[in-house]
Amino acid sequence: MRILIISDIHGNMDALRAILDNAEKYDYLWVLGDLVDYGPEPHLVIDAVREMKPDLVIMGNHDYAVAYNTDCKCAVEMHELSVYTRFNISYRLLTSSQVNWLKTLRHVAKIEDSNRRIYIVHGAPANPLYGYLKPNQPLSRIEEMLTEPSSPYSLKRKLVEADYVIVGHTHIPMKLEVKGIKVCNPGSVGQPRDGDPRASYAILDTEKGEFTVHRVKYNVERVVEKLKELKVDTAVLKKLETILMKGIQ
Fold it and tell me: pLDDT in tens for each of the 249 residues of the chain?
């Protein structure tokens, strides 16, 4: 079973098209959230994702913020851009139907069969919308973020029972193993922040037990031009252009 995994598209339809044109044959499609904010075409991204009929769509913190008109609680250095683009791009272009669709997205998915247990979430099991799982975190912190309540009515926490934990949110591709759990991140489609501006996605081959990250070059300049056409504030545009062109936060 080959699963195409994408995350953090952030209104970047050009990057999404590039990935769909490049991705090899796959059996399932999982989308790990954050379809909106930052990019110039969140409305087209939502329509495209819905038309693809993914087997799984997880809610991201930006999707939640747009759906319920609340703060995204993202990193301090990105917060100003998030708020500005939410009100000046996302809310400007999205229909009420698209916003209501975002409200239907689930926060967590657990998939089990006879061979594997997969836990899928945007942020981290300990904090589905806002938690960060990064490869440079102390091991103790990573283990803490891989916990969930031991029962719906308990404050005690336990390590998730999973062979794979698949996350997004950080915009940084990742593959590591902690206490027998493979923790994987496909990186960001629309706004990579690992120093490589190419769109990022992953293929999970469950038969081979392989999680591979792939990068695709696309026309970043065209995305910047689309932001200009929306008359984005000059300071905001400059920051977004730097992130898109250099793949840095």
Answer: 899 999 999 999 999 999 999 998 899 999 999 999 999 999 999 999 999 999 999 999 999 999 999 999 998 899 999 999 999 999 999 999 999 999 999 999 999 976 789 999 999 999 999 999 998 999 999 999 999 987 777 778 899 999 999 999 999 999 999 999 999 999 999 999 999 999 999 999 988 999 999 999 999 999 999 999 999 999 999 999 999 999 997
Range of the structural domain that residue 128 is part of: 2-246
| 147-149/117-121 β-pairing | unpaired
- Burial label for 171, CB within 10 Å (0-12, 13-18, 19+), is buried
How is residue 210 written in tokens?
Answer: 């392989």
Q: What is the pTM of this model?
A: 0.95
Please count the structural domains in the chain: 1
- For position 137, which CATH number holds? 3.60.21.10
